[in-house]
Design a protein that fits this description.
The protein contains 2 helices and 3 strands; from the N terminus they run E-H-E-H-E. By secondary structure, it is of the alpha/beta class. The chain has a 3-stranded parallel sheet with strand order 1-2-3, with no helix packed on it. Helix 1 packs parallel to helix 2. The longest helix has 10 residues.
Length: 70
């Protein structure tokens, strides 16, 4: 959640946070982040604690969001 509030995210082109136990609260923080551009590539696969509805919300917020492995 602290990461989502960091102004350093303004320059991030790809955010790969796969295989972490971030959960829905952490993913919601990324969705709500005012610093992440909608064009940021967000890779979150391997986060088993993330619900299907949160995966859908991530895909709506970011243009490219990989929530499952290929």
């Amino acid at each position: 959640i602290a990461l989502a509030n960091s102004p350093n995210l303004r320059n991030v082109l790809t955010l790969s946070i796969g295989s972490n136990e971030i959960g829905d609260a952490g993913m919601q923080a990324l969705i709500d982040s005012k610093y992440l551009d909608p064009w940021t590539k967000v890779i979150t696969f391997g986060n088993d604690l993330v619900s299907e509805s949160m995966k859908e919300a991530l895909n709506e917020r970011f243009t490219y969001c990989m929530t499952d492995r290929w």
